[in-house]
Amino acid sequence: MNTNANKIIADHSFVLLVEDENANKGLLSNKQFLKGEVISPFFAREVLDAPTYLTVQLSDTKHILLGPEFLQYVNHSCDPNAFFDTTEMKLIALKDIQPGEPITFFYPSTEWKMDRAFQCLCGAPNCIGKIQGAFYLTPAQQEHYKLNKYILHKIQESNAGKQSA
To answer: Taking the C-alpha atoms of 90, 114, 151 and 86 in order, what is their torsion angle to the nearest 10 degrees?
Structure first.
């Protein structure tokens, strides 16, 4: 998201919901967050039994729509600066975030198999290209990223299945 040509849609004090010239929405930090700091608590405003492009996965059959609702606009990056801790239900800064910086997370950190795969355009040096969920990550990619407990469990389950086959 081009941070220079954004229209502010909503000001949520600590973050701004913005829209760029292509109608892409995202969240920009409105203050400094230090690594490890809580950006925002979140909750399940609705629980679904299957993924959608807006849900965060908690289990095989539990996918939540985020509350507060504006958190759905935390966009993907292969070099994320935030993490949805689905155990503590908090959005956490993975690194220092400056005011005006987009808040991003690594979608496969919460999604085993995504509802809609897409070609990543984040431009990070370590960009993995097609984003489709943690199931498709290489072991090196799995090690590189902070992943939620459910995804770590699915990786262990998958590895155990491969060993017994």
So the answer is: 10
The sign of the CA dihedral 127, 64, 149, 136 is negative
Residue 160 confidence (pLDDT) = 79
Q: Is residue 120 part of a domain?
A: yes
Q: What are phi and psi of 48, to 5 degrees?
A: -115, 160
Number of domains in the chain: 1
Task: Please tell me whether the overall predicted TM-score, pTM, comes out greater than 0.85 for this model.
Answer: yes
Domain contains 1: no
Of 37, 28, 40, the C-alpha closest to 99 is 28
Domain that holds residue 38: 7-164
Kindly report the average pLDDT of the chain as a whole number. 93
For residue 143, pLDDT over 70 is answered with yes
Q: Is residue 151 part of a domain?
A: yes
Widest pairwise Cα distance in the chain: 54
CATH number where 52 lies: 2.170.270.10
Cα separation, 19 vs 122, whole angstroms: 17
